[in-house]
From TrEMBL:
Chain ranges of the Zn(2)-C6 fungal-type domain: 14-42
Natural source organism: Lentithecium fluviatile CBS 122367
Keywords carried by this UniProt record: Nucleus
GO biological process: positive regulation of transcription by RNA polymerase II
Gene3D superfamilies to which the protein is assigned, alphabetical: Zn(2)-C6 fungal-type DNA-binding domain
Subcellular location per the Swiss-Prot or TrEMBL entry: Nucleus
Protein name (Swiss-Prot/TrEMBL): Zn(2)-C6 fungal-type domain-containing protein
Keyword Nucleus: yes
GO cellular component: nucleus
Lineage, broadest ranks: Eukaryota, Fungi, Dikarya, Ascomycota, Pezizomycotina
Length: 473
């Protein structure tokens, strides 16, 4: 694309690289041609919004640390103090509306409540978004996608807004990762990069429940590992971000062990440092998280022909014994609410089900008593939690696994009702999840019942022309 000239060129801001070097920018799109011709990384162009009293994210010396970010004013105070001066009136109204929707709605529906930890999406992500234009774009895109899900109109203005903001967020993430390769990132830039990926992945989940090839997660696996192996203590922001991203990697590994990308040291960091985040955000105790990770890692080695069947069983059998002997009452929980124990039980049975499916996913039919017992326990645990409870949405993944592992029509119907309720109360579509369940149930009806019909075949198989990472949150 040719660079713009005349009055338009003078109005548009220069690219980040040219501004730093104090030189004239030709304002070419998507990248300044001056930077390209000199072999430099063009840092792109700032948003058309201008936020007063916000320091530039380009200076290492001016970066606020995580403690400063947590002290930022929230809610109405933040929104009123960050004036969007350079936006057209209609755009300014939309941006403010999207920001308000993120803070008042999305930040409410995503985490489980707990008095011990702050709401991470409000306390960590939102302040970072006010420091970085790219992350702000990602937040706006997620809000627009969430609002679009509530708008039945085919021409909803939120469709274009979600795509626009998302593309800008991708460009910002690409710029950060290029900078990491060239000169490295400082602490705050690392947090912003991880927050960008987390927000983009949640956008995928909100949109369709699929993340194509897991590109977002793969792109920052090295960064999470580097943070996890540092000797010095990490900020609560980084602990939250690494924990959430590692959980998503575990989820995609659940659908196909060969997809597991984050290394053991990252999962160990989450087990030791992110245990409270795991429970309050997901509902999964760190012990269960660790055993699922060990099982999937073993399954991955088998899939890659690094171990044989006998070695695979030798590694998995002790995990199965540990899971069955695991005592719910010997684990620490965020508070005394019984729902935490019910969630823990559901995740324990989910872990047992996954181990029973390794290494041969076809071997044990759903009619097997071991499978039926796990499914019934998950459904019984969820049935003890009122659907109006904030804890109920945390049963989404265990409910999906139970639904995918049952041949009982009434159990399948119960799972469908629960998933539909969670979809309505959170505003997330979960279309990918429902399609996976339906295709598995349809194929199971055609089966003679002597072998399993694994849902993994529809997420991670050599027969698939296109594979996606199915993520539920």
């Amino acid at each position: 694309m040719m660079a713009r000239t005349g009055a338009a060129a003078r109005v548009d801001p220069a690219c980040g690289t040219c501004r730093k070097k104090c030189r004239k920018c030709d304002r070419g799109r998507p990248h300044c041609t001056r930077c390209v011709s000199k072999g430099l990384v063009c840092e792109g162009y700032p948003l058309s919004v201008k936020m007063y009293n916000v320091r530039s994210a380009s200076s290492h010396h001016e970066q606020p640390n995580s403690k400063d970010l947590q002290k930022k004013p929230s809610s109405e105070a933040v929104l009123s103090s960050k004036l969007l001066a350079d936006v057209q009136p209609s755009d300014s109204v939309q941006v403010q509306m999207l920001l308000a929707h993120y803070e008042t709605v999305i930040c409410t529906v995503l985490p489980s409540s707990s008095s011990q930890v702050p709401n991470p999406f409000k306390a960590y992500i939102l302040p970072l978004a006010y420091q970085n234009a790219g992350l702000l774009e990602a937040v706006l895109g997620l809000s627009a996608c969430h609002l679009r899900n509530q708008d039945s109109r085919a021409n909803s203005p939120m469709i274009a807004a979600a795509i626009e903001h998302r593309l800008s967020a991708f460009q910002a993430l690409s710029t950060l990762l290029r900078k990491e390769e060239d000169v490295g990132l400082n602490d705050t830039e690392e947090e912003i990069a991880l927050a960008l990926v987390l927000t983009l992945v949640i956008h995928d989940i909100c949109d369709c429940g699929r993340s194509k090839y897991g590109a977002h997660l793969n792109g920052v696996a090295f960064l999470c590992s580097r943070i996890a192996t540092r000797v010095e203590p990490q900020s609560p922001v980084k602990i939250f971000l690494v924990t959430a991203l590692t959980w998503f990697d575990l989820l995609r590994g659940y659908s196909g062990a060969e997809k597991l990308a984050f290394p053991f040291d990252t999962r160990k960091f989450v087990e030791l440092e992110g245990y409270l985040v795991l429970q309050t955000l997901i509902g999964c105790p760190s012990d269960i998280f660790s055993m699922i990770g060990q099982a999937l890692s073993t399954g991955r080695k088998f899939k890659l022909h690094e171990i044989d069947v006998e070695t695979c069983h030798d590694l998995l059998d002790p995990l199965l014994v540990q899971l069955r002997a695991w005592d719910l009452n010997q684990t620490s929980y965020p508070d005394d609410d019984i729902e935490w124990r019910l969630l823990a039980e559901a995740y324990r049975q989910t872990a047992i089900l996954r181990i029973l499916r390794l290494p041969d996913t076809y071997l044990i039919p759903c009619s097997d008593d071991r499978i039926r017992a796990c499914v019934a326990t998950i459904l019984d645990a969820s049935a003890q939690v009122p659907r109006g409870s904030t804890y109920f949405k945390r049963f989404l993944f265990p409910l999906f696994v139970a639904g995918a592992e049952t041949e009982s029509p009434h159990q399948q119907q119960y799972v469908s009702i629960c998933v539909d309720h969670i979809r309505k109360t959170t505003g997330f579509k979960y279309q990918g999840l429902e399609k996976l369940l339906q295709i598995t149930w349809d194929e199971r009806k055609k089966s003679d019942g002597t072998v399993n019909v694994p849902w993994f075949d529809y997420t991670c198989s050599a027969d698939l022309t296109r594979q996606h990472d199915y993520l539920f949150f």
